[in-house]
Structure to design on (220 residues):
């Protein structure tokens, strides 16, 4: 398969690249800047200067895949800064929305031309975007951005279903990466393996649903 990974420089994205290359797929890795880990990953093509918060950079990056059909897209890029009702700032909220919400929407829309019947887009959202699941009330901007992302993904799923393209919202688990200060329950490689298995299992009839990488469906 031809598989695009957006946000491939480290963490879950880099583990997805390595896992899928090992499985023999053609991996198209999108990143803001190249590093040694990604350069040595064996992917088919690396698309640099791809900033999901910048429309022009998305446009220029996607152009490099002209004529290539994408079977799977994993949109992984995201940011998380800790805030709460006391430290809330509009600037922080808009930063999160620009990267975590607008970024994946723009990327999917830009790459939709490379996708066709049977293609799947898996976007790494977060269980913290689940309204039902909010126990702490912390991480206000991050939660808002991922909840909005979940709504956007349902909209995209409904529209893209006409072209037989499916869209899924995926939670990777609590993973030891830079975003969590390397705290967590699992390593990025295990998260990547679980996400790949889940993507393979999900079908067009499941499009517009929200899943934990461990295979359980999540409430909105
Ligand atoms: N780790 C967890 O426990 C956990 C739980 C739930 C959800 N998630 C989600 O999983 C995703 C991946 O996070 P991670 O855990 O692998 O963290 P990470 O190691 O911090 O990776 C974040 C990735 O996003 C990229 N990125 C950030 N801003 C970007 C932008 N404007 N344009 C393009 N790329 C950008 C980073 O690239 P640079 O190297 O260029 O910064 C990096 O590749 C995020 O969406 C996060 O919300 C993670």
């Amino acid at each position: 398969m031809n598989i695009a990974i957006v946000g491939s420089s480290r963490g879950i994205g880099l583990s997805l690249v390595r896992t899928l290359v090992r499985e023999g797929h053609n991996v198209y890795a999108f990143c803001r800047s190249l590093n040694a880990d990604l350069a040595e990953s064996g992917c088919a093509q690396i698309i640099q200067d791809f900033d999901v918060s910048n429309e022009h950079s998305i446009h220029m990056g996607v152009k490099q895949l002209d004529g290539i059909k994408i079977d799977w897209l994993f949109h992984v890029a995201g940011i998380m800064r800790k805030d709460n009702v006391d430290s809330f700032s509009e600037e922080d909220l808009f930063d999160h929305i620009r990267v975590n919400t607008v970024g994946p929407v723009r990327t999917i829309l830009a790459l939709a031309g490379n996708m066709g019947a049977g293609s799947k887009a898996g976007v790494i959202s977060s269980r913290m975007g689940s309204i039902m699941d909010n126990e702490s009330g912390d991480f206000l901007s991050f939660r808002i951005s991922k909840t909005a992302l979940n709504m956007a993904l349902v909209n995209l799923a409904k529209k893209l279903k006409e072209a037989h393209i499916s869209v899924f919202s995926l939670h990777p688990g609590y993973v030891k990466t830079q975003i969590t200060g390397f705290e967590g329950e699992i390593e990025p490689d295990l998260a990547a393996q679980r996400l790949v298995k889940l993507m393979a299992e999900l079908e067009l009839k499941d499009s517009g649903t929200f899943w934990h990488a461990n295979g359980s469906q999540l409430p909105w």
Remarks:
- Residues 80 and 142 are 6 Å apart (CA to CA).
